[in-house]
Amino acid sequence: MKVAVVKNVLDANERIAQDNRALFDRKKIYVINLMSSPGAGKTSLVEKTIMALKDRYRIAVIEGDIQDTQDADRISALGIPAVQINTGGACHIDGNMIREALPSLELDGIDLLISENVGNLVCPAEFKIGENAKVMILSTPEGADKPAKYPLMFQESAVMIVNKMDLMPYVDFDLEKAKRTALAINPKLQIFEVSCKNGQGLDGWFNWLSGQIEAFRTP
């Protein structure tokens, strides 16, 4: 019975996510679903991405948190439209939550929509929201064992961003092991080694994202 219930929930979400995707396609909005464990640097990466690309693309952000609005406030301070989703205890954003948030945005004025998911390495990977790409962040203090422990997250993502590279001299993180394990799970995974603190490697991420947006917008 529990298996059937879970399948029904996922099937219902899949239908809503497909509707969201159809809407985004009509509006020519490229959507990324940004995921990570708490504290890996999602909001910092969103801020850096906004600062790098806001002169080229119109950007909006949907912020998902169990409660509070601190992250949405940080994004709004950059002059970017931001909608806060408080999940009330749920460990992820799903397609219906995104659908409910969209009326708060002027969709005709958006080229790139970033959904910053709830901090979790399990649930967000299971629920589509209508995104073009799932992007996940693995921070160096978390350890290199995360791809092996949470394979679905790495399997479902198009990009793995290894953040906090500036801490490599101070943490026990086997970068090559993490990359090797992640690529064994998903050979197509794009990997960027970055530091949101000092800017290391961020240009590679910005260039990849810009390329995806341009390819999506090209008839």
UniProtKB/TrEMBL annotation:
Domain of life the protein comes from: Bacteria
Keywords: GTP-binding, Hydrolase, Metal-binding, Nickel, Nucleotide-binding, Zinc
InterPro entries for the chain: CobW/HypB/UreG_nucleotide-bd (IPR003495), Hyd_mat_HypB (IPR004392), P-loop_NTPase (IPR027417)
Pfam families, sorted: cobW
Domain CobW/HypB/UreG nucleotide-binding, first and last residues per copy: 31-192
CDD domains recorded: HypB (cd05390)
GO BP, sorted A to Z: protein maturation
GO MF assignments: GTP binding; GTPase activity; nickel cation binding; zinc ion binding
Family the entry assigns: Belongs to the SIMIBI class G3E GTPase family. HypB/HupM subfamily.
UniProt protein name: Hydrogenase nickel incorporation protein HypB
Lineage: Bacteria, Pseudomonadati, Thermodesulfobacteriota, Syntrophia, Syntrophales
